[in-house]
Amino acid sequence: MPLNIDFQQILLHLLNFAILFTGLYILLYKPVKDFMKKRHDHYSEMDNRTRADLEGAEKAKKEYEDRLATADSEIQEKKNRFEADMNEMKKERIAEAEKEAGKIIANARETAEREKKRIIENADKEAKDIIAEAAENIVNASLSDNFDSFLDKAEGGKQ
Hints:
Helix content: over 70%
Radius of gyration: 66 Å
Shape: rod-shaped
Order of helices and strands: H
Number of strands: 0
């Protein structure tokens, strides 16, 4: 044994190293490796769930944006319909008001025409009454003058 090398000692050290390596592998490396694998799987699963949730949220966001756009268009459509209905009602009200104004004007004209005829008839009647009274006064004055002169002449003839 030159250099103080004992092969049996080397083989025992190798066997010892193999047993130590196997023991450490079983006691430390394998549990740590399993722990790391579980941790990796756990975080991979969380990442996958997060991505799935993100995709779901993006789909929901897109769906809500579509609904919002649809709602905006529906609101605009209803607003346009409402404005059209309001314009139609406005036109109907204006037409009714014009019709009512026409009736009021026609009634006012009829009333004015009746009042005009009544005033003219009253004026004619008053004029006729005045003329009749004036004629009566003239006739009475004339008769009274004639009668007085007749009586004066008759009295003058008796004296």
